[in-house]
Amino acid sequence: MSEVKTTINLPASFPFSVKVSESDMPDFIKRTLAIELYREGKLSLGKAAELAGARNKWEMLTILDSNGVPLNYTIKDVEDDLDTLERITG
Length: 90
Fold this sequence. Notes:
By secondary structure, the chain is mainly alpha-helical. The protein has one domain. It contains five helices and no strands. The protein has helices at residues 14-17, 25-39, 45-52, 57-66, 75-89. Helix 2 runs antiparallel to helix 3 (45-52) and helix 3 packs across helix 4 (57-66). It is elongated and about 55 Å long.
């Protein structure tokens, strides 16, 4: 995956306020961004998992659930998953 690097300035108190160490801040921000963009429908489950650093979609579903985010699973998603399942199982 190619990456885009960006810098943001946060108040010095921010890590303390969100109870995240400075060294864990990049992962925290990426995970939080992935959750919010998924919630807004701007990222698919797979792309949100990739941004959040989740090992797979199932782990991302757990992350979303623990943050009170409902699954955005459309009829097309179901059809795509059924097609994939059929291809895999023959």
